[in-house]
Design brief:
Length: 317
């Protein structure tokens, strides 16, 4: 288990510690604690289900931000082979917050790209905490146009609190770069699969979020604004973030019920960081299924269905 513990995980951690202590005491064989250990293990499993199967939206947001949660590059390494990274937007620079390249998933060629966060302070600064600059979105679009040229399907992984908000990014056309991606992705003639693996914040997420299939992981979130940002606007108090998370309807279940996504991808009990390999295989299974379905759809119909998918969002009957 990760050394970083969220508040609602503490009772689970305490019970796990007790079990480990008993196992340590019984390790030399001088004392038999098998019954006590089994009893505590049964209680632990019950407690895990009680806690993790009734998480609030805010608690899911906390899991989505967990520093040990798998990132884009982790999922690429666990689900694909022969990854060749593409760099630069051919206009300004190579944005480290947006990575991508060509790879194979069980022999199927694909372009994979997504936001990338860092594991420590130095890397997070280099990658702008997963918040891409205009050049990041231009690099993404350049890669997608290349995939379109060679009829290669596209897979995107979303994990960002939002696009980079600095003055330099605005001067270089942040809003325009995202808008161009929204328009450009709508016109691509190859299948596009989108997976929200962690944070899905605002236009920063939408910049690579137009797809024929849009999936959100069980403990990820997808929202027009962060809970803290919403709370600051509505209540003038960022401490109201838990209430904001509730009303934003940002969880996979809420988004699915609203018809905004296609499917919720299950995670290991407690979050993807508790078993990254299982989480990766769940994603891989969904991607392969989607690729099989989308490749059978004629090009004209694919574009039509994609347009209709986004056009009907927000409609009220």
């Amino acid at each position: 288990m990760s050394s970083i513990v969220l508040d609602f995980e503490r009772p689970i951690l305490e019970l796990e510690r007790k079990i480990n202590e008993l196992k340590s005491l019984a390790s030399d064989g001088s004392i038999n604690l098998e019954d006590e250990i089994k009893t505590l293990e049964a209680r632990l499993e019950k407690l895990k289900k009680e806690v993790f199967e009734s998480l609030t939206p805010w608690q899911r947001v906390q899991i989505a931000r967990h520093p040990k949660r798998p990132y884009t590059m982790d999922y690429i390494n666990m689900t694909m082979v022969d990854f060749v990274e593409v760099h630069g937007d051919r206009m300004f620079s190579d944005d480290k917050a947006m990575i991508g390249g060509f790879a194979k998933i069980d022999g199927e060629k694909g372009l994979v790209l997504g936001h990338q966060k860092g594991r420590d302070t130095k890397e997070n600064i280099m990658r702008s905490f997963g918040s891409a600059h205009p050049e990041g979105y231009r690099k993404a679009m350049r890669m997608m146009e290349l995939a379109n040229k060679f009829n290669i399907p596209i897979i995107t992984f979303i994990d960002t609190p939002g696009a980079y908000p600095g003055i330099g990014a605005e001067e270089r056309g942040q809003a325009n770069s995202i808008a161009c991606n929204l328009r450009g992705m709508m016109l691509l003639k190859v299948p596009i699969i989108v997976v929200v693996i962690g944070e899905g914040g605002s236009g920063g997420a939408l910049g690579i979020g137009v797809g024929d299939r849009v999936y959100v992981m069980e403990n990820a979130y997808y929202s027009v604004i962060s809970p803290e940002g919403c709370a600051a606007i509505l209540w003038k108090d960022r401490l109201k973030a838990p209430e904001a998370a509730e009303v934003l309807k940002l969880t996979a279940k809420d988004l699915l019920s609203l018809g905004l996504i296609d499917e919720e991808i299950p995670e290991p009990l407690g979050g993807a960081h508790r078993d990254p390999e299982e989480a990766a295989q769940n994603i891989k299974k969904v991607i392969k299924k989607a690729l099989k379905e989308l490749k059978s759809i004629p090009e004209e119909e694919l574009l039509k269905f994609r347009y209709e998918k986004f056009r009907k969002m927000g409609s009220v009957s």
